[in-house]
Queue: 4 jobs
Job 1
Amino acid sequence: MNNFSRKLTNWYLDNQRDLPWRNTTDAYKIWLSEVILQQTRVQQGLPYYERFIAHYPTVYQLANASEDEVLKLWEGLGYYSRARNMHFTAKDIVHRLEGKFPDNYNDLLQLKGVGNYTAAAIASFAFKEAVAVVDGNVYRVLARVFGVSDDISINRTRKVFQTLANSLIPAHSPDVFNQAIMDFGSLVCKPKQPLCASCFMQEECYAFRYDKIQELPVKSKKIKVKERYFNFLLLEDTQKNIVVEQRLEDDIWKNLYQLPVVETATSAVFSEVKAGYEKQFQEKIIDFTELDEHQLRHQLTHQRLHIRFFKAQIIDFKNTIAQNDIQKYAFPIPIKKFLKKYYHQS
Ligand code: SF4
């Protein structure tokens, strides 16, 4: 085994985190954990993983669940397309593949929502196939240790790192290597302030030797952030039922529930928002006020949401739910927080 892999796996065997999806070769559990952990820190993802496994111990139970139920369980984790794809894939596996996960990297890649990283993780952890995981952690570790200066914001660079990582992965323990490099990237060779002073890889590390830690990996493109302005409306009838709607368009929070909304191009004046609602409901809005104290900003990877809440009355209430049923619906986090605070729910 090369020096890098030997040192890395030795370190991992002494320092590994005991995580529930590491004590199994069940492809379903590994897949579930990988989908949950995309874009999510381990500590945040762990309770979700446990909740999903408790509700759906096998792919059959997940396939039989309703999408509303899956989204509700996913509530707060963000990137809801992951949950929708996961549910779709569970049904696909049950109906097309008789409940069996494909047992190799190339076939795993055919599943919806399963990209190179997830396919490599499942193939190596469940089936011991020697294919390396490559994500932001791996880019960073390999760029620094081996002095790779290819720009990681360019798509074709992935191949460069995949080839390098595949050349390092030991055939007899690809699962340990993949777990080790992921842990090393998130615990030691961190994006900011890596623990170089105590790092066992100093001798091998190009960036350490040539003082290039801040420059590697190379990433030229910055993510463009779009500003969006959402004005949500709380409509409450005399029985304190509230109007909700489902977001059906191909946009953030697809299929989640929300309060009626008017989206404006910039921070709108009061009368513009009111006119927007009147158009939407085709009727007059009465007692229209802004709930100033609930204004907030919500940051997503590519979007910054400027959110305001309003309150009003209408004559014809449709699509209402009881206040007590709010908990049964999957709402985006800012709306869930607003409703909780507004109704003083625990
Ligand atoms: Fe990463 Fe620093 Fe270790 Fe190099 S010496 S592998 S940059 S933590």
Job 2
Amino acid sequence: MFSDSAEKLKHVLQVKSEIMRAAREYLRSRGFVEILPVILSRVTDPLHHETYDGTVDYYGRPYTLTKSMILHKQIALRTAPRIFAFSPNVRMEPEERAPLRRYLAEFVQLDLEVRGASRDEVIEIGEGLFVAVMRSVRENCAAELAALGRELPVPETPFDRITYQEAVARFGEDYDDPLSSSLSAPAWLIDFPRAVREFYDREDPARPGVLLDMDLIYPEGYGEALSGGEREHTLPHILRRLKQDGIPPERFSAYLRFVEEGLPASAGFGIGIERLTRYVCNLGHIKEARLFPKVPGVADAL
Ligand code: ASN
């Protein structure tokens, strides 16, 4: 359809720009304040999977590149009650992830956090945000969508919810792609077990071992859109979770100082902008969703 891949990219970037504009407008209209991202810090998200090390030396101390702003989001809530950032994340993924077609070593997530919120409350924000973005893109990027051959549906709310247990029972441990392919509208995957997630997602006090967290799964095989949940915010809980994950607390001492002073209870999530663009524009590979993509296993990218 495209004589030139630059022509296709031009449409994609136009849509992506509209996605970011609409998301900003939606969040600002609901009382969120935009904060600027942190890229270099003493602590970052430990993630639940291995990536290449992004550590740099500064004043003889190891500083790291942001894998997600989760810990900074919690601390930022001491200043403002509803925050978001378009946050560049550097996750230097191993080559094994390349065939999944949805990983980039450098991407941006729209990361938000709400003081005092429950999981249900941020799920509602996620649904409102998603629908607002779909509507705006349909309205303001009709020519681009037509050129990309995309008929973009606007899903009904509330979205369906599936528990992690149900997903594994139906599709096995590698549920991501088959679950996503089975969906005709986005759906929430909820209640991950403690062992498969990071220490900051809050354990349900009524169901030990089960977390009050969620992913949003795209339909049509596009896979995971978003991760989030309620947060652990008290020192005893955080120390216990770090211990369960075998993480020495000293590794997070710069963060734990703030936890000791007091963090608010909160919930939030982060949605990957390139993945959202890939879904909206119907792109086969996430590398088509941005300029200067860094795909796992490809050396020498600009
Ligand atoms: N941004 C996610 C969250 O808010 C964390 C992540 O990206 N791993 O939970």
Job 3
Amino acid sequence: MQKSILIIGACGQIGTELTMALREKYGNQSVIASDIREGSTVLMQSGPFELMDATDYNAIEDVVMHYEIEEVYLMAAMLSATGEKFPMRAWNLNMNSLFNVLNLAKEKKVDKIFWPSSIAVFGPNTPREHTPQQTLMDPTTVYGISKQSGERWCAYYHAKYGVDVRSVRYPGLISWKTLPGGGTTDYAVEIYHSALEEKRYTCFLEKSTKLPMMFMDDAIRATITIMDADPKTIKVRSSYNLNAMSFGPEEIADSIKAHIPEFEMTYQPDFRQQIADSWPSSIDDSQANADWGWVPEFDLDTTTKVMLENLNKA
Ligand code: AKB
């Protein structure tokens, strides 16, 4: 089936792989990548690209009208660690970009929106283990506050204006194709690069800090699956909990040592420790499973194997 899709924030960690997966599924010319900067060669050369600021409503509207866009994936955001350094910039980017796409859908200029939320919506008083779909949320970061507010606005635009917006709360994401930037969970990607290049890594979180994590292939599959689902099955219009695996730095180090026995890990926790301490250790995603059939495929050891194999080849 042909459809015209716009990815905003296509050059980031998720956006790059999502763009390539959607181009594979719907054809290169149907998927318009956009970002404030240019991205990887493969992304730039495989299909249309537009330089675009996600906070500029008119610029997005022009691209939407020009390409007759039906679906928008809004992947532009400032993540938790960078957001603490630039609180107002994080708030402005994360909220204004969301309002831009919600308003385009309200005006019936696009049919469907994907917007990512995060485990950062939870806070120190949220139950840490098997965090339920519906629970107390008291985020302590600007990023988390913007994601929690965004969830409420998504639910509001759906209830009030019938906007078809779909969302998942991503855990920390691990990928080998594009580096993450500015998150608290970024260590779980950096560690693989350092393990191969230097056989050692100094971790900015303490060894036992267990967080929910996911391999990128699972995250992309979840994103495309929820967007393809029959709207009647999407019962949650704020955002769905999404689970795959949970581990701490010590466990990922052990998993790497199974392949690189000389690998050494040291610990120097910084300001990101406090952010990580406010987030859940594990997530209950039974509602995503019941409503649209979500089942993860990658565990820690499979992730480590695929990461090391592919980074070694790169
Ligand atoms: C971050 O660490 O800020 C992100 C997230 C969990 O949303 N990876």
Job 4
Amino acid sequence: MCGIVGYIGGRSAWPIIVKGLQRLEYRGYDSAGIAVIDDGALRVNKCRGKVADLLNLVRSQPIGGTIGIGHTRWATHGEPNDVNAHPHVSMNGHFVVVHNGIIENYREIKARLAEKGYTFKSQTDTEVLANLIECLYIEQGLTAEQAIKAALRKVIGAYGLGIMCVDESGLLFGARKGSPLAVGVGEGEFFLASDATPIAEHTDKIIYLDDEQVVTLSRDGYYVSNLADDHLDPVISHIDFAVDNIDKGGYEHYMLKEIHEQPNSVADTMRGRVNPQTRTISLGGIADVLPRLVKARRIIIVACGTSYHAGLVGEYLFEQFARVNVEVEYASEFRYRDPIITPDDVIIAVSQSGETADTLAAIRMAKQKGALVLGICNVVGSSIARDTDAGIYTHAGPEIGVASTKAFTAQVTVLTMMAFLLGRKRGALSQERYEQLVESLLRVPDMIGRVLQDEAHIRDVSKAYQLAQNAIYLGRGYLYPVALEGALKLKEISYIHAEGYPAAEMKHGPIALIDNCMPVFVLAAHDMYYDKIVNNIQEVKARKGQVIAIVTRGDSEISKMADYVIEIPECDEALLPLVAVVPLQLISYDVAVMRGCNVDQPRNLAKSVTVE
Ligand code: G6P
């Protein structure tokens, strides 16, 4: 959701914070703002729009100061406008706050502060928090740190916070509960950020704060404590990606770069886990809990968005190869349904960011009920990664484009490795078949590379659909979740209404929509459903729908019926999702670019959804 950056050190804070916000802008981009303290004076600039709009606003005005905080917003309370943009300054100007998350009891707090004479400029919960801190600071004669802790003991909800106190301008405060916050540890300088991306170019030493921890940063060091005022000794981790990974690397958009990275990112996901010599899989992250996973009565995969679609692929994989009962649940539904969970169940949370509020809540609930909880996350040190009993990082590298691409293929790769390994351990897969599957999996990066070589043809196909208003995506078996993912990608970034369906369901409703204006993307690779999907294509053509078919290279039958075909290499049916999703990603990208949409920052969306 929102992105927070903070800096204290010997350098000018403003450019460091601006650069950091640009790195974090993928998290939220409806408004931006920065506060710095220069010579004891607080200077705040903020506006509706992007970081670029903020820069236009202050262009040519020199901004000094070596301590500051910044924010890029995804609105929760109050519409995106200049007043609601962060930072928020307390009524008497003592405190300035940037916030990611939601203070749930802000109405009660606001009413109590109003009784004491506090007035509010914005509609935000954050301004209420700034005033609460200030009220406690003044009324109780507390230090800034004590006032922050006292206020946080009174709030219910989630927060990642960056705070400065004008009277203690040599200190920068951070706090987290529910919303991520990390501290970059440099030489005589320190950084605060919602994730590692703004920190990586300054230092590789990072502290991921835990819930209800507060950090006080000075130019001399850091001090981490909890709300009960106990001093804590945090673990310093190392950022595991190079700064090049968070640049566009010559591509026009992050999304296109990330689509193209997939041959490498999928190989990275397998690295050290799939052994080409022995044709075996070993998953160190879950080695200790493997016996319990092998004996699981049921696997429940919980996730949101694209990660949910990866989870659906996982269901097909686990059921086919490990012969274990699987359910896939939207985390937001699962967490509130009081589901029946026993200690024989294994919950697998799938999440790129590792911060999705609903997924996090779902695993906490499942843990309380005694289930083994595993995580498949991309962001190292993220909340879900830390709150699970064990897990497997996807190692896809930072994903900046809001529409998830390489994270999806990495998640499916992890689920595939898990299913094959579990199948072997449960005796559901013969050694021979297991080795064959491992060999096929190792060929996937190359197959994705071959699909990418067809980019120009895919762009030509996309041209025909740039003016479409609706689209249907159809698939069966392993390709049904891919149809859902293709439709999600198109709607997310091109704003074309798109629906994914299991192909056989078309007759039960969507067929009514088909006419000569309706593009129907059909995933029709060689698999056990091939003949059936051919029939589905005929049903669409009989109603004059436009068919764009994703077929196995050399397919001659479908090319006679379809308006366009896009070929993918022949591969094992279970591995089709990893290959067949790639042309759909490219089509969404191309169509969105042709329609002039902001591909990397589509309207209303956020990369990391830290509120429910
Ligand atoms: C948001 C993002 C999606 C993502 C979903 C789940 O909606 O825009 O790309 O799939 O959240 O996020 P997660 O980080 O849990 O995978």
